[in-house]
Amino acid sequence: MKTFYATFLVMVMILMSCSSGKAQDSNKGFVSLFDGKTTQGWHTYGKTFVGKGWKAEDGALHLDPKAKENDGGDLVTDKEYSNFHLKLDWKVAPKANSGVLFHVHEDAEKYHQTYSTGPEMQVLDNEGHPDGKIIKHRAGDLYDLVKSSTEPVKPVGKWNTAEIISNHGQLEFILNGVKTVSVTQFDESWKALIAGSKFAAWEGFGTFTSGKITLQDHGDEVWFRNIMIKELK
Q1: What average pLDDT does the segment 62-78 reach?
Q2: Which residue segment(s) compose the domain that 213 sits in?
Q3: What are the tens digits of pLDDT across the range 202-218?
């Protein structure tokens, strides 16, 4: 019996080691954009500081609307990214709306909001927020441009793992391990998507090939964690 348990424990340890190795391999080449403790590497769009609503707590970036005191705004990376693979976890409070934007051109005088230039992966309580009733506005969608091919989003209060891959014009969204969007940017089909959206008359929207990564302050409570990125050549 002792031999059996010893063999069993060895097998468990081997399996755990293999699992850990696979996780490390999947994150190879990625660098963290959030240290789990501070907002270092981020600032409010158009500002030099982080608004009061964003707090680094319990290993997550937490947007608390009650703490904003009229000092809110979208959070953007200090650095710009062009071709990249972004990974992060998100969860929302009931009835909440947020988003992860990319290729955001930070020129607050010309473009007053991050969404003036940056496409968005929607973050949403599909069942509780009004946007959940609008096609191309649900969680995992390329907001107002492309509807998710499937909806693997988890219930409100649960963590979702999202990935955005932008590689020389090839754009993919992955939510909880399932590809939800695949589209080509910057070609004629991309221009047609924009022309058929709410962004049709917005000069500069979806035209920048490099820009900031953005976590949206939509006025609702949301959390982000395990934010990491790999720059692609």
Answers
A1: 89
A2: 33-231
A3: 999 999 999 999 999 99
